[in-house]
Write the structure tokens for this entry.
Amino acid sequence: MAEAVVIALLKILGTAAAEETVRGFIRSALRMVTSSSDRARARDEIDDVKRELESMVSFLRIADTVRDPNDPVSIWVKQVREEAYKVEDIIEEFMCWAAGQSITDAFRIKNNLRRLDDITKRLKRAKSSVREISERRRDEGEAQRLADEQARSRCLSELSSLVEHEHGMLVGLEQSRLSLTGQLTGGGARQTVIAVLGMGGLGKTTLVSCVYNSHQVKKHFECAAWISVSRDTEPMDFLTSATTQLFREEDSDTDDTRSTTINLSTLARKINDYLRPRRYVIILDNVWGAEFANAIIDAAFPDNERGSRIVITTRMEGVASILAHHTHNLECLNSEDALTLFRKKAFRRSSGRVFTEEFLHWAQSIIAKCDGLPLAITAIGGLVSLQNTPEEWRRIHDSLDWNPNNNQDLNRVNRVLMSSFDELPYYLRHCFLYCSMFPEGSSIRRKRLIRLWVAEGLVEERRGLTMEEVAEANLKELVFRSVLLVKDTNECGRIKSFRVHDVVREIALSVAKDERFSEVFRRSTQGSSRCTEARRLSIHTTDHQFSRAISMPSLRSFSVFGAATFSQLFPRGMMPSLGFKLLRVLELNGTPIESVPNEVFDLFNLRYLGLRGTKVRELPKSLERLRNLETLDLFNTEMHILPCKISKLQSLRHLFILNKIEARKHRITRFFFRGETLAGVWELKGLQTLRTISSNPEIARKIGGLTQMRSLSIMGVRSVHGMDLCASIAKMERLLRLCMIAANEPMREFLRLENLSPPPRHLQKLILIGQMEGVPRWFFSLRNLTHLWLLDSQLRESENPLLVLGSLPSLAHLTLDDAYKGRELRFPLQSFPALKVLCLSKMLRLVSVVFLPGVMPELRELHVRSCAELMEPPKGVRYLTKLQQLCLVIMPSQFIEKVRGADHASFKHIADVKHHYKGADGRWSVQLL
């Protein structure tokens, strides 16, 4: 990992920003009082250090894989890393200091000379240390000693595969799958708790996930929730996660659970009351403590004698013995199943390769080292998947240098996983370690992670690509290597969120802490002095408070997960004493803070300020001092206005500024961040994300200057803005997502979009909210559009909107919400070739829906909601041969009776048919049809 640190430092030393800051300050401040040779001293010292570090990179690439802490090479690597950190601190401290200096008087010049001299001396000492370390390495001849290790390392694949079982590779668990399915869907009416027990990496979560997501199980239960439980999970967080999933369709219920005043017992009782009349299945994944789980089960999940089931996965035998009525004890695979799994992984990309005796010999030898653990087998199977000869397999076998010892099995697996980690190229290593800072079992959103990586400086520049595009490529590579696991995808298969396997995360946490990359404070963290030198800190517990004796001058990132507040973490006046002067990322998303300490706005280095979901109501005018800020996330805060003209933040790339609660309603009655507040937004030439801005004539006319824009949301659009706004959007050639919301006060306005021609050719997501006179003709050119939402559009039947929409070749998701005034929706022959999800909602005049043969050959989900005049079920549903889910919400009783009765045969091929409705008491219920 020292290689990644050194390369990151070299990038800083060579950046235009560093060059300009150092040279510019010296040139301006010292022009009249020093010689040209004196002015060059600081820059020369930087260049010398840079050259010395560059000479080490190729050696570090090999030496970084030496894991024995007592090995001379490992000690040398640690020394290089420490010196690289020191130099990075010196340079960034100088850049922060120089940027804030004035050179208008002799007194300041004198002080500046003194400061510059101090920095030069520190650089000299650092250069001397780096040179001494480099010479020591050469004298000891370590490079030659490592030559053989380099040759052995080359045999390792470019693609590692730290992956738990994929559903298609559920080897050795078929009997457990059938048994678990039977226990969920059969048996008595009493509530039953079933445990899946085993060490990390045996496939517990994968087995349960396979069963949980099967059509047989989905259809059997009225409601379900999957809750990941870590050692640090708070009871309130647990119950909040349960309500989010259980009340998915019930907006009023979810709004109640978001209240900050609701207490634990009230929330548990609310869940209990909701589940009591329903057959439910709850998955508690990765339970560590029986007492915690037992209390939650007793309080929130009633034994309602309806055949409800609770499944827990755990590594702890005591948890299973205390909680479960039935236990599935997973074991390592036998040699036959292990070989089957290994072959599936090793040959997944080369089906034509012949599994010869030589391949078999080395496969069996490799499997023997895996000791039957599925995670280890899939990891090594991934490593060999692109190696084409038995000789390459032999080299991989020889390079896996771990042996059975007195440690637990997991320690041997760590060796396997670490071998894959060592194979990550330097540009991925810190990206991967960064993911360990998120809470255990958490879902990591793709876009959020990309923005954080960029802000942290973990992404290299590549010609022709933005930093965000490079970061996304890195993310895809980590997924391909199975270091990160996919959690959720959209209808097009694009990844929406990720997670890190628990075992892999533990390894990453250990490496990150050892290398001072980051540290996580969780309930198991003892003391606080250990993190004083961490460069990134993530807080996962609410019971920590920093000591006044601690200083963190090298901290680059500070993130808080959970309900901790600044006042809890930092007693009054504490934050300045911690020395966060080099901070690049401050993320407080979801915390109940009401104000941000003034010291934050003195952080010259700050790139990312995340306040999403907080109670912050205002920011000081000093916000404009954050000249390097790239991401400002004020989404779902209580702010109504920015304190400065946004044009002051010239480095800004991503700006989120809309209140989320209002955004969910679609029919927005007031606008936040008025256009005049965002005057000059068109001057932010690097802006890629703007969500959401309120339109006015000037913004509509000038926003076209944002040619780097990828995601734009604009609300309060009036008819008179149409021509200018269309002309502006047409200039955004890189636009991927566009949301336009018509003004609705003092009157409902039309969206005038006819002049948007040509539209951005890469557009993938389009959200239009407001009345339209028809579907614009330029829709025909949206060849890359995958997602379309039309809300309140009020399209006329005579316009035949389906003729245009059905021709879009890539459209995978279509939502029509109060979008059509006609009485019949007739989906044409051979239309919607790629559509997978169709949502029809609130079309109050609709009386007939017809699917003709050949329509929507890929449709998986059909949602119909609140169509009050639709008494007849859709005709032609039998032509939708791949339809798996039909979700009906608040539909007329006549419609429901026909689906269940006379027309039931037309829906028999659909695995999951449910009706969500409100009873007389106002409670939501689910009916299986």
